[in-house]
Amino acid sequence: MKFSIKRSAFIQGINMVSRAISSKTTIPILTGLKLSASNEGLILTGSNADVSIETVIDRNDADNELIIEEEGSIVLPARFFSGIVKKLPSDKMTLSVANGFQTEITSGTSSFTINGLDAADYPHLPEIENDNEISLSGDVFKEIINQTVIAVSNQESRPILTGVHFVLKDGTLFAVATDSHRLSQRKVALPDNQGEYDVIIPGSSLSELSKMISDDTENVKMKITENQVLFTIGNTYFYSRLLEGTYPDTSRLIPKESETNVQFDAYELLGAIERASLLSHESRNNVVKLTIKANVKQVTISGNSPDVGNVEEEVESKEVAGNDLEISFNPDYMKDALRAFGHSMINVSFTSSLRPFTLVPSEDAENFIELITPVRTF
Asked: Which residues have C-beta within 8 Å of that of residue 136, sequence separation ≥ 6?
């Protein structure tokens, strides 16, 4: 195996697949990066058994300056190899494998030799033979991930809640996540009927996928089989296992009616919560209180720490309706929820001081909802 390539193009590919490589894997060869040179170009693969990423550097793309002199495959230690490539002196580099698995990397006046592993021992990527493919624009899919993955559970005691539940039915893609303390739900209408699915994708996989979707990503394509999902972004393929089990029915968690409703600018409310949480984080229970006096249309955020002090701030609300209310909540949950709304106007609806409350955008309220369970303080 021998090829030469523009180093910047190679680094871009290495960075992409390195997202799937972990030094803590129980399968030693998965700490390596697999390289395969063929007629198509250079194929880079990284995997940690749960997630696998494969990217193709096209030999026909002149920007890559890829010349393959001899085809072949090798697995190289990912951490050392990527470190070497990033430190090479010239923008052009050559890699050749000889004497079994001994790999020579040259660039300018620099030359490294490292020992590789047999690519035949590297686990095969899953075969996904499903013709049904969901296609979404990159910015929409990234938004769906970022708005829902914040609510997945970090507790392995209920593994099903560590994923996002995706349901595709009647031309609507429905995504929901909950950790039993909060919930985030998003709906998107697809342009045409793209089949029916009901799957749970690990939140950790989706977080990595989101980082790979850039501003110039036109489309993300998704294919699903019994226990795997494949996302295609240009020349990069992202495989993830699916979680097994039945996701709880989350529709019953969302209140149908409310007693108190307030409209806020999400960004302004986020600022007030951040300031209040500066003190609440010093307290053992980490709670912020929201006090609503509907008759005078006054909303106050307060937080305190017995050791440090307290904070109180009146928050501008665009509209207040219903009953007076005092409610306490975890400010970190509230901050995560508010960041998902950006600078938009939101409606916050409360039932009582002990029942979950909801946040929805003032426009397009049907398609995005966040729910937070309050904290009992007495």
From this structure: 144, 173, 188, 190, 219, 220, 222
